[in-house]
């Protein structure tokens, strides 16, 4: 059908939750059911108290309040949702593999494969299967193979053709922290389809859904491989801009230039553009590093070593930027942070999210902990258990094994890392403050009060270049910013 009435989404995470909430809000005539194998996540999505939603996103509670219970449902009944729906979004996680072939590089597709197998097993009517997760090029082929083999009876080998499937690629371009506006006002919606009549019909059905709020000319259609590759390419280009400006920040520090001035000057060239040129302690988030490593892996697989090396450098430079920041803290504190109290303002990978995946804070903390620093964290949205889990995960899954990093036990981590509910507690008697996330509230603090509570000299390392340099220096802080010589 080209008019879909029932949608299922497998995966109620940072993408599945907000995306489906917006579809349900914009399309009251479509029933949207989001399912997940994690019962706690589903319970949180169903919580009466909207501040308990598992994803923190500005504007999300309002959208959920409007649609939930009307035409938006969250459930653990994956099979039921598959059976009932005409269109199924796969929006499960695709993290970097931590084992076996492609370890540390390739995307782990086991969750996607499980979804395809489950759809194949359960479906008794025709389904449009939509890849919403970010996937390597040609994954649709694998999904198609699994779905098609379902119509063949395992015991008899006979074809029962109980259901037919169309596979679409519909990558998501939202950024966390701005997910709702990004979804409502997407620059473009991308739909890749198979080159067949069924493929074109499915493409139209999905385009019709988005057309409820996205102008038709911004809904673009391509071949399925191009769509899959466009997602990896978009993230690689965005991350490349950050690594480019961060590389220049190192040069600025040596030469006395100011990276923010350089960014402003080049950004006014309309060919370059001003966005994504904010130098920082390094990019984080669940997407950039994972997707670039995946791209690099694909290039090596297709025997394109020069292309692989080119993109890998974006990640290498990002590792360097995080390391540089940590090293600068240690160097400035007279070459050791052992036993010293270092306050972290921010742990999330960017402002306005509670997501911490690949946050620069984790890597900077790890380096300081190797030198036995005492770390005191304040983040407005991240829970203490998440911070401990992040550090423990890094101990177990270090990508860069060439670094001479020792293993820290869970006990050591819990001894050395403290999490606070207030920035003033976190900075009391601190030797230094490091700003890791650009939360707006950090700019509004009574910095004189914070200064008074710290040990002297009072160091601040602004990893986001958000603080008022002149004002802090006037108070007496020893301030170090990124890319300001
Ligand atoms: P997430 O980890 O927040 O959510 C994934 C959810 O899928 C989890 O809740 C997990 O329990 C569930 N899940 C896994 N296997 C399942 C199964 N077999 N059945 C039911 N549920 C299952 O991940 P995310 O950040 O939402 O990312 C999802 C995908 O979207 C990834 O491929 C990612 O690359 C892509 N993406 C993410 C973003 C982003 O900003 N986070 C943006 C664009 C694209
Ligand atoms: C990114 C893409 O922007 C989005 O299109 C895709 O769908 C998912 O991946 P996300 O990771 O959520 O989104 O946030 P983004 O705003 O891209 O920021 C990623 C990281 O780069 C953050 O750590 C951020 O602080 C950092 N960053 C961003 C910079 O350091 N400088 C910048 O100029 C921009």
From TrEMBL:
Positions annotated as active site in the UniProt record: 287 (nucleophile)
Catalytic reaction annotation: UDP-alpha-D-glucose + 2 NAD(+) + H2O = UDP-alpha-D-glucuronate + 2 NADH + 3 H(+)
GO biological process: glycosaminoglycan biosynthetic process; UDP-glucuronate biosynthetic process
UDP-glucose/GDP-mannose dehydrogenase C-terminal domain ranges (all copies): 343-469
InterPro entries per the UniProt record, alphabetical: 6-PGluconate_DH-like_C_sf, NAD(P)-bd_dom_sf, UDP-Glc/GDP-Man, UDP-Glc/GDP-Man_DH_C, UDP-Glc/GDP-Man_DH_C_sf, UDP-Glc/GDP-Man_DH_dimer, UDP-Glc/GDP-Man_DH_N, UDPglc_DH_euk
Enzyme Commission identifier(s): 1.1.1.22
Binding site for NAD(+): 11-16, 36, 41, 92-96, 133-134, 176, 287-290, 357
GO molecular function, one term: UDP-glucose 6-dehydrogenase activity
Entry superkingdom: Bacteria
Keywords, sorted A to Z: NAD, Oxidoreductase
Residues where substrate binds: 172-176, 231-235, 271, 278-284, 349-350, 464
Pathway: Nucleotide-sugar biosynthesis; UDP-alpha-D-glucuronate biosynthesis; UDP-alpha-D-glucuronate from UDP-alpha-D-glucose: step 1/1
Family per similarity comment: Belongs to the UDP-glucose/GDP-mannose dehydrogenase family.
NCBIfam families: NDP-sugDHase
Function, in words: Catalyzes the conversion of UDP-glucose into UDP-glucuronate, one of the precursors of teichuronic acid.
Identification of the protein by name: UDP-glucose 6-dehydrogenase
Organism from which the protein derives: Sunxiuqinia elliptica
């Amino acid at each position: 059908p080209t008019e879909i009435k029932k949608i299922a989404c497998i995966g109620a995470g940072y993408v599945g939750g907000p995306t489906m909430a917006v579809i349900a809000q914009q399309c009251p005539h479509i029933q949207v059911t989001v399912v997940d194998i994690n019962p706690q996540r589903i319970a949180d999505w169903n919580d009466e108290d909207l501040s308990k939603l598992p994803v923190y996103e500005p504007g999300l509670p309002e959208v959920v309040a409007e649609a939930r219970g009307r035409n938006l449902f969250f459930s653990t009944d994956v099979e039921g949702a598959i059976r009932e729906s005409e269109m199924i979004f796969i929006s499960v996680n695709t993290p970097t593999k931590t084992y076996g072939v492609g370890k540390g590089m390739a995307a782990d597709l086991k969750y996607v494969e499980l979804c395809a197998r489950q759809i194949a097993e359960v479906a008794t009517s025709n389904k449009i299967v939509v890849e919403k997760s970010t996937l390597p090029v040609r994954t649709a082929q694998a999904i198609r193979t699994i779905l098609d083999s379902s119509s063949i009876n395992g015991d008899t080998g006979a074809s029962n053709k109980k259901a037919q499937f169309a596979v679409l690629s519909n990558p998501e371009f939202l950024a966390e922290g701005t997910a709702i506006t990004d979804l409502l006002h997407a620059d473009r919606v991308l739909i890749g389809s198979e080159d067949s009549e069924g493929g074109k019909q499915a493409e139209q059905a999905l385009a019709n859904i988005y057309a409820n709020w996205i102008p038709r000319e911004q809904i673009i259609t391509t071949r399925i491989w191009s769509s899959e590759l466009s997602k990896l390419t978009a993230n690689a280009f965005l991350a490349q801009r950050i690594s480019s400006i961060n590389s220049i920040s190192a040069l600025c520090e040596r030469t006395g230039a100011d990276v923010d001035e350089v960014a402003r000057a080049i950004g006014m060239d309309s060919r370059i553009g001003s966005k994504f040129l904010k130098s920082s302690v390094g990019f984080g988030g669940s997407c950039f590093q994972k997707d670039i490593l995946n791209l690099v892996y694909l290039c090596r697989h297709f025997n394109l070593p020069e292309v692989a090396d080119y993109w890998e450098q974006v990640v290498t430079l990002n590792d360097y930027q995080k390391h540089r920041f940590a090293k600068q803290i240690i160097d400035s504190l007279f070459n050791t942070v052992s036993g010293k109290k270092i306050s972290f303002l921010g742990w999330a990978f960017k402002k306005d999210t509670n997501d911490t995946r690949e946050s620069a804070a984790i890597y900077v903390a790890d380096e300081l902990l190797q030198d036995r620093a005492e770390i005191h964290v304040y983040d407005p949205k991240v829970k203490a258990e998440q911070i401990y889990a992040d550090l423990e995960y890094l101990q177990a899954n270090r990508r860069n094994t060439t670094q001479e990093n020792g293993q820290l036990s869970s006990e050591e981590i819990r001894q050395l890392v403290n999490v606070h509910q207030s920035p003033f507690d976190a900075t009391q008697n601190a030797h230094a403050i490091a700003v890791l996330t650009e939360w707006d509230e950090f700019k509004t603090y009574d910095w004189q009060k914070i200064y008074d509570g710290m040990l002297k000299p009072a160091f601040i390392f602004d990893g986001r270049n958000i603080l008022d340099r002149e004002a802090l220096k006037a108070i007496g802080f020893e301030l170090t910013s990124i890319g300001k010589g």
